[in-house]
Design a protein that fits this description.
By secondary structure, the protein is an alpha/beta fold. It folds into 2 domains: 14-147, Probable tRNA modification gtpase trme, domain 1 (Gyrase A, domain 2, 2-Layer Sandwich); 183-335, P-loop containing nucleotide triphosphate hydrolases (Rossmann fold), CATH 3.40.50. It contains 14 helices and 15 strands. A 7-stranded mixed beta sheet has the order 3-4-5-6-2-1-7, sandwiched between helices. It has a 6-stranded mixed beta sheet with strand order 9-10-8-11-12-13, sandwiched between helices. The longest helix has 16 residues, at 249-264.
């Protein structure tokens, strides 16, 4: 059917809720309004009334004199628009009800994606991932890419000479850790000896008592997973059994899995009870500070730890909250080592995009600009969750 504003009768008005109902702090609504009159009637902008196309504006969705919600709005020349409002169901439903009153037809996210992407695979993929966005940061980042931020930048790179193209690709690659962390959450294992406060920390980080906490060793007998967000980045926390000899066959298997996962886990927190001398010196020495954090738990009690074998530890107390914010920030830095890109800018958000741009960078470094442009074009066509269009 073409673009969202290109309807069969030229007049059909449609509204689509892209984000999952009730999930996260941001809801994204797409509207198709060939008349262009709906926003004129219901959007009160903070800034100028005639913005450049594709630019985000802040303001309010209104119904008469009533303000329904403070929003961000991006308009396109074809009469389509993206509205970012507060999450939950109440606000989004009120805006959608307002469109229905004005004759809009509610369409599925899939249909809205097909029409809005305009044949651009990157925008289509961003819209598809937006449906499942788990955090506000993810929704905003993907909405910007769905609006063409990454596609536009890649098109610009194709016209650059060798060294400007290399610089532009380097800048894009520095956004990849952030974009991929938002769309493909990693597992963060919480590990350590028995009774080191692992389950207490797990419950603290997810914000509720998901696992049983007890003074005796062996309370956690299998891996417990829970999705949460740390610094706006979605992550799957994994609470693990204490590293020791298992008392039962099932417990031994779970501990063996933890041991095997120690070297394989991309990110991990190793907990040590700070109120008693550490028992696992060799494992502490082997910590990789780039991907494994050392947490000195129970910092509300007198410390009995004097030698950490050159490793830096973060003292924490789940009881008092001491050090938890510092630990969260350390986790975020390891999840997103290159920092947070500029709002609404281009962001690399899949592993395939990153791999293709890395190949393009290598080709430019080798003086093979034509090959680099081919890799960039492949990146442009990498849609449908990473599958290359034939």
């Amino acid at each position: 059917m073409g673009d969202m504003g290109d309807m069969s009768d030229g007049k059909r008005r449609e509204a689509t809720l892209l984000t999952p109902p009730g999930r996260g702090g941001v809801a994204v609504i797409l509207i198709a309004d060939p008349t262009g009159k709906w926003l004129q009637s219901h959007f009160r902008s903070r800034g100028r009334k005639d913005p450049s196309p594709d630019r985000m504006r802040s303001g309010w969705i209104t119904r008469g004199s009533e303000s329904i919600d403070e929003v961000l709005v991006r308009e396109w020349e074809d009469g389509a628009a993206e509205i970012q409002c507060h999450g939950g169901t109440a606000v989004a439903d009120r805006i959608l009800d307002l469109t229905k009153e004005d004759g809009f037809i509610r369409v599925s996210p899939e249909e809205g994606i097909h029409r809005r992407s305009g044949g651009d695979p990157i925008r289509k993929e961003a819209l598809s991932l937006l449906i499942e966005a788990e955090t506000d940061a993810g929704a905003r980042m993907l909405a910007a890419q769905a609006g063409g931020a990454l596609s536009t930048r890649l098109e610009e790179i194709l016209d650059l000479d060798r060294w400007p193209a290399l610089e532009a690709i380097d800048l894009l690659l520095r956004t990849a850790s952030y974009g991929i962390a938002l769309t493909a959450p990693v597992e963060l294992w919480i590990m350590g000896p028995p009774n080191a406060g692992k389950s207490t920390l797990f419950n603290t980080l997810i914000g509720w008592d998901r696992t049983i906490v007890h003074e005796g060793p062996g309370t956690t007998r299998d891996h417990v997973r829970e999705r949460t967000a740390i610094g706006g980045i979605p992550v799957t926390l994994v609470d693990t059994p204490g590293l020791r000899e298992g008392e039962t066959a099932a417990e031994s298997i779970a501990i063996e899995r933890t041991e095997a996962g120690w070297d394989e886990a991309r990110r991990a927190i190793f907990c040590i009870d700070g109120s008693r001398p550490p028992e696992d010196a060799e494992r502490i020495r082997r910590l990789d500070p780039e991907r494994q954090l050392l947490a000195l738990t129970k910092s509300d009690l007198p410390s009995q730890v004097s030698d950490l074998h050159g490793q830096e530890a973060i003292p924490i107390s789940a009881l008092t909250g001491h050090g938890i914010d510092r630990l969260r920030e350390a986790i975020r830095q390891r999840l997103v080592p290159d920092g947070v890109p500029a709002p609404r800018g281009p962001v690399v958000f899949t592993e395939r995009q990153r791999a293709l741009l890395q190949s393009a960078r290598g080709a430019i470094s080798a003086g093979k600009l034509d090959l680099a442009r081919l890799e960039v074009r492949q990146c442009q066509s990498a849609g449908d969750n990473g599958d290359l269009d034939d």
